[in-house]
Write a structure and sequence with these properties.
The protein has about 425 residues and is an alpha/beta fold. The chain is about 40% helix and about 15% strand. The chain has a six-stranded parallel β-sheet. The longest helix is centred in the C-terminal third of the chain and has 19 residues. Its EC number is 2.4.1.-.
């Protein structure tokens, strides 16, 4: 009987990151039945209910288990910093309990390797403790364009004397399409936390069942993105003006684009909509509060477009499902992703912001109609179908993604057999 190879994986207190690394681990153990993964999650206050729900949905036969570290009290974190900084600080404060947990588990069931989320890189130092000496890997699921920026940031910094956002010429990242400085991240930070529950699933799927194929625009800014009050008004009136069917996931407005990182106050987002909007659009659209089952929506035959914040999880899901996009980046590397989608891959449209940073209702209506029924839509849909087919090929049993993941698992099993240790980077 083959021996079991044990590895540990650590994420951060953000649902989208936890869901991503869990999906990676599920695929890994599916390809290598002798690998057992323990996922370790730092937490703020309490584990995200969506993560608990996701863990409960794992089959009982899976060889992926999990541990939640003792929670960090949110009130003990600085309150005058962005939520992304709070998440990073919570990871740092969780390192002592992570080290103790890893050593305790290792004493009874030795690990051979640690896989760490990009924003939990402090854990790599723990992996090198003398009594552990684990091979260490960074899990980096964003785009290759973002990875190239990370790898060449020092060189680019030396080439550009001013702030990137003030640089007037195109910046050339090796291996990527040229990009303007204002589309680069202001600084690098973690992205998104998850929903509190799934109350909208059955309702929105039933609604989609009654719509024509490719007729609905899905509008969502991820699990952490928010719009200001003025932009919520313009979005509502623009969707109405477009005359196109829409399914909009609405969150209470905020002047901070990532205000929903660590949860929102108990306010009704519907109260911020223009007066009479819901009544006027009753036959045109459906507005859901805070969250919706995104993969179910994108995979539905009635969904014909996705207005997205361009988070990489959402981008990949849209490509895999073959849904063209309207790009509306909010923060972090999302502007880079928007450039890649609209100017590189040409599978989406990007609206224009006015001088106050607002996309006006007429612009929204024009871009929505352009994607859903405009002259450009046939070419865009053809290209997204080609990408969908390429993604499906990569995920086949003999596809490039499956093959690379299998080779990674084989490397881990060789570590178990006493071969040399490795350190590395895992990309999507």
């Amino acid at each position: 009987m083959a021996k079991i190879t044990h590895i540990a994986a650590i994420s951060i207190p953000a649902f989208s990151h936890q869901a991503s690394i869990l999906e990676f681990c599920k695929r890994l153990v599916h390809l290598h039945h002798n690998i057992h993964v323990t996922c370790i999650f730092p937490t703020i206050d309490s584990p995200p209910p969506a993560t608990i729900s996701l863990l409960q949905s794992l089959p009982s036969s899976t060889t992926v288990d999990h541990i939640f570290l003792p929670p960090i009290n949110k009130q003990d974190l600085p309150q005058d910093v962005p939520p992304a900084v709070q998440i990073q600080l919570a990871v740092s404060q969780s390192m002592p309990s992570f080290r103790a947990t890893l050593h305790q588990l290792h004493s009874t069931t030795p690990f051979v390797a640690l896989v760490a989320d990009t924003f939990a890189s402090e854990a790599l130092q723990v992996a090198k403790d003398i009594s552990l000496n684990l091979s260490a890997y960074i899990y980096f699921p964003p785009s290759a364009m973002t990875l190239s920026l990370f790898l060449h940031l020092k060189t680019l910094h030396n080439q550009v004397s001013c702030e990137y956002r003030d640089h007037k010429e195109l910046i050339r990242i090796p291996g990527c399409i040229p990009i303007y400085g204002h589309d680069l991240p202001e600084h690098f930070r973690v992205i998104q936390t998850g929903p509190n529950s799934d109350p909208n699933g059955p309702e929105c799927v039933r609604w989609l069942d009654n719509q024509r194929p490719n007729s609905v625009l899905y509008v969502s800014f991820g699990s952490g993105g928010t719009l200001c009050q003025e932009q919520v008004n313009e979005m509502a009136l623009g969707l109405e003006l477009s005359g196109q069917k829409f399914l909009w996931v609405l969150r209470a407005p905020s002047d901070s684009a990532n205000a929903a990182y660590l949860g929102a106050e108990n306010v009704d987002p519907l109260s911020f909509l223009p007066r009479g909007f819901l009544e006027r659009t009753k036959g045109q659209g459906l507005v859901l509060v805070n969250w919706a089952p995104q993969t179910q929506i994108l995979s539905h035959s009635s969904t014909g477009g996705f207005l997205t914040h361009c988070g990489w999880n959402s981008t990949l899901e849209s490509i895999v499902m073959g849904v063209p996009m309207i790009t509306w980046p909010l923060f972090a590397e999302q502007r880079m992703n928007a450039v890649l989608l609209t100017e590189g891959l040409k599978v989406g449209l990007r609206p224009k912001f006015n001088s106050d940073g607002i996309v006006e209702r007429d612009e929204i209506a024009m871009v929505v109609k352009g994607l859903m029924v405009g002259e450009e839509t046939n070419g865009i849909r053809q290209r997204i179908r080609e990408l969908k087919d390429a993604a499906a090929d990569a995920l086949k049993e003999d596809g490039s993604s499956t093959r690379d993941l299998f080779q990674f698992g084989t490397r881990l099993e060789n570590l178990k057999r006493g071969h040399q240790t490795f350190d590395g980077l895992i990309t999507s």
